[in-house]
Amino acid sequence: WDEKILKASLFIKRNERVHILGPRPIVKMAGCVASQSDLNIAPITNVLHRLMHCMDQGYGKGFAKCFAEDGVLEIKIAKSKSEGREAIAKSCEGIHGKFCSAPLRCKHWEGNVYVETVNENTATNLSYWKALSGGEIVSTGIHRDTFVRSQTDGAWLVKYRMIEHTWTKAGGHV
Asked: N or C end of the chain, less CB within 10 A?
């Protein structure tokens, strides 16, 4: 094995038994080798998408369940910070009522998701989002998230989410 390959954060080698001791734990799945860090990306991305669906449906309780009990939701443009699941659920319902219910029926899209594992119980996300109404973009921005692994069931939960608007139809560049 080449030393440069061993240092790579993601290395896939098919149909060979691999034993690598290095900075990131490596696991073997279905004939492929991937780092534990890479295996965290799909479940965390799924939480990100669940957040958007709950927001668009006004399902505050489901939105809040994506957060740790002591999670924080900060919305920079509104200068608001919601702490704890109950407050976070109310924020989701408020946002839905203002932007996502008739006649706007706004839908949110998450993209360019960049997840980094900090350690086995913590990860971060940096991603872009956009909100559309009637097929027209009405706002764009950045999500900055910190995820923690639940000590109960191992699920990834949002510990902190910062929503930063970079552009709105009404106000232009923010």
From this structure: N
